[in-house]
Design brief:
Structural class: alpha/beta
Number of strands: 12
Shape: globular
Radius of gyration: 22 Å
Low-confidence stretches: 1-17
Helix content: 25-40%
Strand content: 25-35%
Distance between the termini: 9 Å
Mean pLDDT: 87
Number of helices: 6
Largest sheet: 5 strands, mixed
Strand order of the largest sheet: 1-4-5-3-2
Length: about 260
Amino acid sequence: MLDLLKRTFTSPSSISPELVEGEHQLYLPTENKTITYQLKLSKRRTSLSIEIKQHQIQVKAPYWSDLNVIESFLIKKQSWIIEKQQQQRIFPVNLNTYQTGSKLLLFGHWLTLTVNHGSKFQLSLTNDERLLIMTIPRHIKKPQQYVRSKLVQFYIQQAQQYVSPKLQQLQQEMNLQAKALEFKVYKRRWGCCYASGLIRINPMLMGAPHWVIDCVLIHELSHLTHMDHSSAFWQLNKQYCEHCDLSKKWLFEHSHALTLL
């Protein structure tokens, strides 16, 4: 998942002459190191955002911003930036390229994607669950987009196989009943519960260990009784989930590795 930090700017009367798009370097005094970041400017943007993706720092800013203001904000957030980079170093750098060698998470374990070309689509998971082998038709003009779409389908199938029976089990234990269950890919959420009783789960959550998935399901089921995050909600949630803090931490640390967007 992408991490964003936002700050609203007041438009100055003129553009800083030092502000140019591209690669910049900045010394972080507290961390005692120099970082490299990519700056992108936009006429429509009204705020600054910092994005850490596969160890790289990307900064998006209004085209009229001042470079000194941008870098002061980066210095202010230097501990957060270094922490996010360190977290991402434990993961392979070629995540989600949709090519042979890409790394994917499934139920907390790493898979390596192998992409072959053939006459028709095929997808298989090896017995040791270390390789996901996909054969795509030779005539496909945009293979990476095609592979991504098939991976989404794969995770939806995994979600249907695991979540549906698990949700039934948890509903019996909690004496609660959802009206319906759906799967939808989100950018920044793992599940949601509606007042109508509908529960939606992000199929990319299937990259997490089973105990993390279960925590999310318990969380959403608890919303059937409490549609907020009040003390009563957390009391109910903690009756059935003993790993709330750990699951939240796991998802925070692995969020960027659970997205196909």
